[in-house]
Design a protein that fits this description.
Largest sheet: 3 strands, antiparallel
Order of helices and strands: EEHHEHHEEHHH
Strand content: 15-25%
Low-confidence stretches: 128-132
Structural class: alpha+beta
Number of helices: 7
Mean pLDDT: 90
Shape: flat
Number of strands: 5
Distance between the termini: 59 Å
Radius of gyration: 18 Å
Length: about 130
Amino acid sequence: MRIECTTDFVRLNGKTYTCPISAAMDLVGGKWKPVIIYHLKDKPKRFSELRRDLVSATDATLSIQLKQLESSGLVSRQIFGDKPPLKSIYSLTDFGRTFLPALQELTRWGNQIITERGQFTRKSVNSANNSN
């Protein structure tokens, strides 16, 4: 029996959704959340490391996305130090790691698309254009 068809709506964290995929996409959807999770999958990272990994994301965007991932329980933030500048380390929670099989499939699909329809390069288009 398919669980998602047993009711008209689902609820999660006080929100109502029309289907489980809506709830899941609310947690990990958008341009940056899956990318952040991808870059945290192997090891915890500082904000500055994530910033280097997400070259076209602004500091504000990265900060907002990390806060949303943290509030949904997918990412945790550990703060070190008692005087600014504080050192923040971001890592996936156990709940965040439950997304990794889906992320792996998205990565596999992305690799297939690039192999068939695009190309792998060493520089981004933006980097190449800025170097002129």
